[in-house]
Amino acid sequence: MKYIIILTLLSLNTFGQDLSGLNISIFEKALREHSLPSLLDLRSEEQFHRGHIKKAINLDYNDLDFETLIINQIDKNQAVFLYSNTTLEANNASIFLKGLGYKEVYYLMNGFSNWTASSKPYVSSRPDTKPIAAYTIENLMQVINSNKKVFVFLSAPWCSHCKVMEPIIRKNTGRASGIKLLKIDISKEVAIAEYFEATETPTLLYFKNSKQVWKYTGEIEENSLQKVLFNQAR
Question: Which CATH architecture fits 137-231?
Fold first, then answer.
């Protein structure tokens, strides 16, 4: 099939890296084209219930009985599609499944957080809550590197300035062409706050072609934000 050819071009042929990683569009297309595929969500049960891709089965990769569960539930002759929080975990699971004798295994690159950040559909057994983003430095940088323009909004639940800024940021990043907006709660993602030296909230970061081109801490006037977005969007 066509996506297998594209897969070879996109995959990293390095030691320890499986050659089954698919970006969102190819993953979605391949899933549609296969008859009776097995779609596995490798995250925790809590994360699964908050939000998951429709028809996915939850088998926590960190469960001590993972091997037994997957052998008992998934036919080795079926195509298996995996996703998790990170590319690394999904890649490791793909290698593990192939070692068990599963011949056709694919995984979603950049994790479920990238799926939701790309406005792809998901279902939830808890409609009153949002999916846990579960950003790590690894999958955050993968999202930044796979998009031309990314605006990162580092916030916290107690931050009154963040609540004021959020609708302004959403409105203006939506108007600027091709900007992906990522909102990250640094009270949960402490490692990301430390990585970007975000000691206060809100901290705003703008990336273009994988490079950080702007950083601002605190509340910013809307016209000043517009100048940054539309100047950098060119």
Answer: 3-Layer(aba) Sandwich (3.40)
